[in-house]
Amino acid sequence: QVQLVESGGGLVQAGGSLTLSCAGTGSIFSINAMGWYRQAPGKQRELVATITSSDSTNYADSVKGRFTISRANAKNTVYLQMNSLKPEDTAVYYCNAAVASGLYTGFRSYWGQGTQVTVSS
């Protein structure tokens, strides 16, 4: 069964850095677009960054210049490098991917389990 497994969350001081990873596992043929989303308490889940299969990237204005999304296709993995972290970056971060699998036709959207990022003042 296809799963997205996230890692790399934790506690960091403002101005620090963290790198999140999200690896696709299971019967995966290929992964198209991938992205990171986050949800803070009392707030809606928001798009943080996306990356296409051709490495085209987009970022939310709030993280532009501080976060970098990248992917390692051979490992079905997407990364989010987060620099100059701010307390307002505190949230549960979720990865998302459009996955082609031997279990079905076309692409299906999958979500990771979420990883907590906490930025202290």
What's the mean pLDDT score?
96
Shape: elongated
Tell me the radius of gyration. Answer: 14 Å
**Spans with pLDDT under 50 lasting ≥5 residues?**
none
Structural class: mainly beta
> Ends: how far apart?
40 Å
- Which bin fits the share of residues in helices? under 10%
The major sheet is characterized as:
7 strands, mixed
Number of helices: 0
The topology string of helices and strands comes to EEEEEEEEEEE
According to DSSP, the number of beta strands is 11
In terms of DSSP E residues, the strand content is over 45%
Write the layout of secondary structure elements.
Blueprint lengths: L2 E5 L2 E4 L4 E8 L2 E12 L6 E6 L5 E3 L7 E6 L4 E6 L8 E11 L5 E5 L3 E6 L1
Parallel strand pairs: 2-11
Antiparallel strand pairs: 1-3, 3-8, 4-5, 4-9, 5-6, 7-8, 9-10, 9-11
Describe the structure.
- The protein is 0% helix and 60% strand.
- By secondary structure, it is mainly beta.
- Strands 2, 4, 5, 6, 9, 10 and 11 form a 7-stranded mixed beta sheet that branches. Strands 1-3-8-7 form a 4-stranded antiparallel beta sheet, with no helix packed on it.
